């Protein structure tokens, strides 16, 4: 019995020891927590942790107020971005006329090579000069009388069915003298290729008329002039037949066309320097003239008025 009671008492003592140890450990833990919680810096760490935002998937938008700056913002490279240019529709100001809304006939340059005939730019021709009595200045080209008698007749070969009509030619004599003349006439045989039959007034600028014949060189010119081109319909012209002549052109004509049948129709040229529409096609309508350099001038509003020189207000470019 005694042994049993002793064993029971020992078990109760062990339980008390375990409880005491547990209580002691718990007490020590509580005291340690209190001590650590009172140390400086712990509140700062706790505050910092509270101020740090937690990453979320929400999108944050910013609303700006006030007037935005007009200066260019820098790009990633540090250089200012250029301001966008206004579109053509955003520009204001006076309206610009279209290419077709002009009071003068339109001018265009053809890209098609145009034959200059026998007389070509930048070529020098050799021949002789003779003299004739020019009277009032009219001749085979039928330009009519002229107060300017610095004119000449071209030999038949170089006259080339009136292609030379209206050409301005620089003539040089062997003695160093020179003059500029306009071709208004044809010199028939025995005038040879290269020969010019000058008006007496023009010949006298180079040599004494008594000499009668001198060696020369000559070349085509594109002179300075204030004169503009005129158009004249031949006497007898009508809507059924017409002859058309260009007067006062700076450069020789290569062709003349009329607007007919929805397109341009080239008219044949006569030796008396008129372009003929035998069936009346295009008579009284738009006219297009082309010089030997390929420049084209379209002439609108020329009335069908026979034997009247009608100014157009335009001229070929100088070369």
Automatic annotation (TrEMBL):
Residues 157-217 form the RlpA-like protein double-psi beta-barrel domain. The keyword tRNA processing does not apply. NCBIfam families: expansin_EXLX1. It comes from the Bacteria. Residues 61-79, 86-116 have a biased composition (Low complexity). Residues 47-122 are annotated as: Disordered. The keyword Acetylation does not apply. This is RlpA-like protein double-psi beta-barrel domain-containing protein. Keywords: Signal.
